[in-house]
Amino acid sequence: MEKFDFKKFISRLIAKKISEVIVVDSRTSLKLINLSLKGEIKVKAVKIIQLPAANKQDEVITRLVAFVKENNIEHRNIILCPALKSLQGSRLQMPAVPDHEIFDALNWKLKEDFALDASKSVVDYQVISRTAREDGSKVLDLICVHADENEVRGLASSYKTAGFNCFAVNLAVFGYAKMMSKCLKEHGPEAIAILQVMDDASYFTVYKENKVVFYRQVPITIADLKESLSSEIVTEQGGRVRLTPEEINKLLFDGGIPLEANQVAAMLRPVLERMAQEVKRSLDYYRSQFSGDEVKKVFIAGDGVKINNLDKSLAAGLACDVSFISWAEKIAVDPKVDKKLLPEVCGVIGLAIDFESGINLLPKEFKSEKIERFQKSSLRWAAFIAALLLAVSFIFAKAGVGLAQKRLDNAILHLSTLSEIREIKVRLDSLNAFITNFKNAEPPVGLMLKKLSNIAASGLFFNSLSMDFTAKTGSITGSIKPQPEGAEGLLAKLVKDMSDSRLFINPDIDIVQKQGANSEGSTFKINFQLP
User: Fold this and answer.
1) Of 509 and 63, more confident
2) Which conformational region is residue 39 in: left (phi greater than 0), alpha (psi within -120 to 50 degrees), or beta?
3) Which end of the chain is more exposed for a tag (fewer CB within 10 A), N or C?
4) Is 406 found in the same domain as 520?
């Protein structure tokens, strides 16, 4: 007899689609974007906040809570784009293996090449291509990212403690790839690049066919541009002054990079030249190491889009077209949202597009919480579905029995004149008695499932329910979270409630067993008889 598996029902039938999510980009300035995922992705609210370096994570959560209240956001779903100190990314090649073996093979590769302990890290990857060499061997080419598991777990736990449901931890470079598939549909197969210029970190990424094929951190940032402006400036009166941080921000972001020769242009030129050199080095390395195509288009993204003429300054040192990302008009936006903010956040907006299938550095226990949460909250729903299925089966069975009864009645009419009518009548009477007994013997399955759902206490979860209608026996298995009164007390109350309901005859506890030395909770089994 096949057992009824509640977990399988829940995982298959109660897979809830996330309709809204907040992307939290806390790498430099805090960027909060509330997105609707119903149909076409839509930006419903955006806020960009400059944060102090001290107690930054506490401030991020405080501002996130305020953002939720200000915009009357009813959900608590988030996707994180954090500044992880332990984050590393690289492009790797290894012998092709089946999809279900890639993780194991990748962990061995990381251990050999980077001495990485996979048990202490979170690892994810994106396949670039599968190719065959001249000797016939197949090669798997992929982008791999990994980070210290404790660092990511601590970050996710802080949001969980504040009441938020974290669904993914990802990098903005993969968000831009999703945005390309949405905003650059006319783009051909040639490679393009995006230079994210941030306050304390910059990243150069090459994309081909909307996939990340090269990823590198560039050691030139907005902080370096600000630093170059912190030296003394000669005034028109012949004196020397040193700009304050506020004056530097105004000069850089409001005035931009001067195209004509002056003191500011001279102070910025060495940093801009080094930035252009780093981009050129990255392009040369991509072409030489990965047989890369010529990159003819470079987009500037991140906080760098706020610096006027940065694109023209870099284009002068590169043999390719350089421009700011301008995809705002291709993104659905709520009327109250300031579209001028979109170029700064378009990469992290992309992290919400099909986030279930993208890179995710969230530890396993956080990924599984989503399923477990639906399992716990949907036990009554699963019981209802099970009862509905049993009711439908009963209706079909009853219809079949009714049809058989009608045939038997016709047989009695036609055979009443035959000499064997007495023997046939005896057989028909026996069959009718069997049908009557079958009808009367069916237990009230729907009522039993409803009663189980009502008496299930908090902390007690059913894994399977099996009933043998022929032997009139049944059993329930499940698990119990740790309780102050102990597992036995909770089970004793369940058995008493089952007995009082008179739907379960002689229920008794068969097994109570702890799940393991390092695990919390217990498993149990209860046997009973059917009425």
Assistant:
1) 63
2) left
3) N
4) yes
Rounded Cα–Cα distance for residues 462 and 475 (Å): 11
**In this structure, what DSSP letter does residue 320 have?**
S
Contact (CB, 8 A) for 93 and 133: no
Q: Which residue reads 């279930």 in tokens? A: 356
Burial class (CB in 10 A: 0-12, 13-18, 19+), 153: middle
Pair 383, 516 in one domain: yes
Stated as kind and residue range, the H or E segment containing 380 is helix 379-415
* pLDDT of amino acid 358: 85
| Long-range contacts formed by 310-316: CB under 8 A, 24+ apart | 310/197, 310/256, 310/257, 310/272, 312/257, 312/259, 313/257, 313/259, 313/268, 313/272, 313/276, 314/195, 314/272, 314/275, 314/276, 314/279, 316/276
Any idea which residue has 């119990």 for tokens? 480
pLDDT 10s digits, 194-240: 999 988 889 999 998 888 999 888 999 999 999 999 888 877 766 78
Domain interval for residue 235: 185-326
Sheet holding 211-218, edge to edge: 211-218, 202-208, 192-197, 297-301, 321-324
Burial profile 305-325: b = 16 or more Cβ within 10 angstroms, e = fewer:
bbbbebbebbbeebebebeeb
**Residues 385 and 505 both lie in one domain:** yes
Q: For the whole model, what pTM was predicted?
A: 0.65
Phi, psi dihedrals of residue 495, rounded to the nearest 5°: -65, -40
Q: Which residues contact 146 (CB under 8 A, 6 or more apart)?
A: 87, 88, 89, 110, 116, 121, 122, 123, 124, 361
Q: Are residues 216 and 279 in the same domain?
A: yes
Residue with tokens 């237990």: 443
What's the residue count for the chain?
531
- Do 284 and 389 fall into the same domain? no
Q: What is the DSSP letter of 306?
A: G
Please give the backbone phi and psi of residue 97, each rounded to the nearest 5 degrees, phi first. Answer: -135, 165
Q: Which two tokens stand for residue 397?
A: 């069975």
- Name residue 428's amino acid: L
CA–CA dist 290, 280 (Å, integer): 15
In a domain, 135, yes or no: no
357 or 71, which is more confident?
Answer: 71
**How many domains, the chain?**
2
Look at residues 309, 326, 343 and tell me which one is the last residue of a structural domain: 326
In which residue are the tokens 């915009």 written? 71
> Residue 199: enclosing H or E segment and its boundaries?
none
Is residue 179 within 8 A of residue 156, CB to CB? The reply is: no
Mark which of 326, 342, 364 sits at the end of a domain: 326
Tell me how far apart the alpha carbons of residues 504 and 496 are, in angstroms, rounded to a whole number.
10
How many CA atoms are closer than 13 Å to the CA of 64, on its beta-carbon side?
32
DSSP track, 489-514 = HHHHHHHHHHHHTTSSEEEEEEEEEE
Single-letter residue type at 206: V
CA 81 – CA 35 distance, rounded (Å): 15
How many Å apart are CA 321 and CA 312, to the nearest integer?
A: 9
pLDDT above 70: residue 31: yes
* More confident of the two residues 516 and 212: 212
